[in-house]
Amino acid sequence: MTRALVVDDSHFMRTVISDILDDGGIDVVDTAANGTQAVRKVEDVDPDVVTMDVEMPEMNGIEATEEIMARHPTPILMLSALTTEDADATLEAMEKGAVDTFAKPGGTISTELSGHSEELVTAVEDVAAADPTAGHRVEQSTTATPEPEGSAEYVDYPTLLIGASTGGPNVVESILGALPRAADFRVLVVQHMPDQFTSRFAKRLDRSSEYDIAEAEDGSRISGGEGLVARGDYHMRVSGYSNGRLRVRLDKEERKHSVRPAIDVTMESAADKISDPLVAVVLTGMGTDGASGIEAVKGAGGRTLAQDEATSAVFGIPQRAIETGCVDEVLAADRLAEAITDSIRRSS
């Protein structure tokens, strides 16, 4: 049975979360009212997973996450209110080592959380299965890959497709941060993430990379040096492509693999519409999303890569893609940007 520590400064929320987890077959071994208590109790009870509030007195969720990862690495699920401030703080906590996030419906003191019991239990179980130290084995880089002597020559009009889930945001950021602008990719990112977070994630990627990254809108168009992050709760499909410029369409069609946006939807539509070079990468995450997309990109003549098990918080998505036999290379997270770039260099 999964053992959880519930951390929230609201007694009401601690009770609600604990009851939901107990009913879902998760053993809540203890609770904490702030980050200071959380750090101590993680060492005392050694839980399989921690649900962590963001805003708390004495020590907030970001600080507590950093302390726990330094002293007693444990999978952490951030429970965040649906506010811009909490979204930014949650992304920062994930940078410090938190594995994933779950958005509290209805605000900080949520009376609506019980209506999302099944999703919360699933999220806690998924995070409990993650390797909390995987992120520390990823060499985070926000510096573009240096080019060899002389100007590198790349193929024309390449498109990069990135799909990720649990544990993915930091890896996505490290890849885009190391991607040389001269490669002139069109970039499409599908990160399983609540819809209140994808706009903040896109802004974070925009700041840390040489590419112009934005959250996708219906009808968005991009050219070389630009990228889109799929909006939470919307599938992102490539709907048109001409002369190196692509267009996307957003829709709320049925979830695929129980998720929306789905990696497969974006990759399959890209493989169908884009005639120029494609590179597809699947990263850490739970589930099977991305396997069919990798098959489609490979079938269209594209290059396919997957993150390795050692640096994946959860190896589900990469493993399922590898099992298709359509992945060209399996690499550590900190080697992916170079492999992506190398795949579009012109032969000398």
From TrEMBL:
Residue numbers annotated as active site: 165, 192, 289
Ranges for domain Response regulatory: 3-119
Matching SUPFAM superfamilies: CheY-like (SSF52172), Methylesterase CheB, C-terminal domain (SSF52738)
Keyword set includes Protein biosynthesis: no
The keyword Transferase belongs to this UniProt entry's keyword annotation: yes
A single cellular component GO annotation: cytoplasm
One Pfam family per UniProt: Response_reg
GO molecular function term, any single one: protein-glutamate methylesterase activity
Classification via SMART domains: REC
Compartments reported by the entry: Cytoplasm
Swiss-Prot/TrEMBL GO biological process terms: chemotaxis; methylation
Keyword annotations of the record: Chemotaxis, Cytoplasm, Hydrolase, Methyltransferase, Phosphoprotein, Transferase
Superkingdom of this protein's organism: Archaea
Swiss-Prot/TrEMBL catalytic activity: [protein]-L-glutamate 5-O-methyl ester + H2O = L-glutamyl-[protein] + methanol + H(+); L-glutaminyl-[protein] + H2O = L-glutamyl-[protein] + NH4(+)
Mod. after translation: Phosphorylated by CheA. Phosphorylation of the N-terminal regulatory domain activates the methylesterase activity.
Positions of the CheB-type methylesterase domain: 153-347
Disordered: region residues: 132-151
EC number: 3.1.1.61, 3.5.1.44
Modified residues (4-aspartylphosphate): 53
Family assignment from sequence similarity: Belongs to the CheB family.
Function: Involved in chemotaxis. Part of a chemotaxis signal transduction system that modulates chemotaxis in response to various stimuli. Catalyzes the demethylation of specific methylglutamate residues introduced into the chemoreceptors (methyl-accepting chemotaxis proteins or MCP) by CheR. Also mediates the irreversible deamidation of specific glutamine residues to glutamic acid.
Domain free text: Contains a C-terminal catalytic domain, and an N-terminal region which modulates catalytic activity.
UniProt name for this protein: Protein-glutamate methylesterase/protein-glutamine glutaminase
Organism of derivation: Halobacterium bonnevillei
